[in-house]
């Protein structure tokens, strides 16, 4: 005998290296220092843990900018805790739940497949305070993942970071907005 739909709850299970643990992204960014320009960067990550709607990823990002007057390469490594389906906390009122309305407005016919998320970013960059030492990095993100097939999904996000960076022998804080699009498999 099955459970009635109202009682079909499930316990969260700790999942190490879950399905689709690897991600590959291309990001388009605008930054305020080092250099102040729009660039494209690549990042790769792995989802190390998942517990219910929470997951922790580790991401490596590489950025390179070469011009006739300067060359800069930046490496970033950060933890990325995420809360998937955060919109579902708005599951009220009972007649027309807010989360269903928001999903319908944002994702249209894909509302049942979309996995919206919010997350934080905590890590470091190299070069940081000077050419040979690391600097810190922190920020946040919001995005959505669309599972396409078992073990494959498309991910889009908007990310804001602040980090230390050394550029042309000058260290400063840089702010960066990134639009990322990538795949998880």
Describe this structure as you would to a colleague:
The chain is mostly beta strands and 185 residues long. The protein has one domain: Porin. The protein is built from one helix and nine strands; from the N terminus they run βββββαββββ. It has one helix spanning 98-107; strands spanning 14-16, 22-31, 38-51, 54-66, 71-84, 115-130, 133-149, 152-167, 170-184. The protein has an eight-stranded antiparallel β-barrel with strand order 2-3-4-5-6-7-8-9. Strand 3 and strand 4 (54-66) form a beta hairpin. The longest helix has 10 residues, at 98-107. The protein is elongated. The two termini are 36 Å apart. The relative contact order is 0.19. The model has no long low-confidence stretch (mean pLDDT 87).
Short description:
The protein is 5% helix and 64% strand. The chain is mainly beta and 185 residues long.
Largest β sheet strand count, sense and barrel closure: 8 strands, antiparallel, barrel
CATH domain topology = Porin
The rounded distance between the terminal residues' Cα atoms is 36 Å
Low-confidence parts, pLDDT < 50 over ≥5 residues?
none
Mean of residue pLDDT values = 87
Could you tell me the strand content as a percent range?
over 45%
- The secondary-structure element order is EEEEEHEEEE
CATH architecture: Beta Barrel
> Can you list the strand order of the major beta sheet?
2-3-4-5-6-7-8-9
Shape: elongated
| Total number of helices | 1
Count of all domains: 1
Q: What percentage of residues falls in helices of 4 or more residues?
A: under 10%
**What is the name of the CATH class?**
Mainly Beta
Radius of gyration, whole Å: 19 Å
């Amino acid at each position: 005998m099955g459970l009635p739909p109202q009682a079909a709850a499930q316990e969260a299970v700790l999942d190490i290296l879950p399905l689709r643990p690897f991600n590959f992204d291309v990001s388009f960014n605008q930054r305020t220092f080092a250099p102040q320009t729009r660039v494209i960067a690549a990042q790769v990550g792995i989802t190390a843990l998942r517990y219910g709607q929470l997951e922790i990823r580790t991401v490596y990002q590489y950025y390179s900018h070469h011009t006739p007057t300067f060359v800069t390469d930046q490496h970033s490594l950060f933890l990325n805790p995420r809360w998937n389906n955060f919109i579902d906390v708005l599951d009220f009122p009972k007649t027309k739940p807010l989360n269903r309305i928001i999903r319908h407005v944002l994702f249209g016919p894909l509302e049942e497949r979309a996995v919206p998320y919010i997350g934080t970013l905590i890590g470091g960059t190299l070069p940081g305070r000077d050419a040979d030492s690391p600097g810190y990095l922190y920020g946040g993100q919001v995005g959505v993942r669309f599972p396409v097939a078992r073990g494959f999904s498309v991910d889009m996000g908007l990310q804001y970071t602040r980090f230390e960076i050394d550029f042309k022998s000058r260290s400063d804080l840089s702010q960066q907005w990134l639009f990322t699009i990538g795949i998880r498999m």
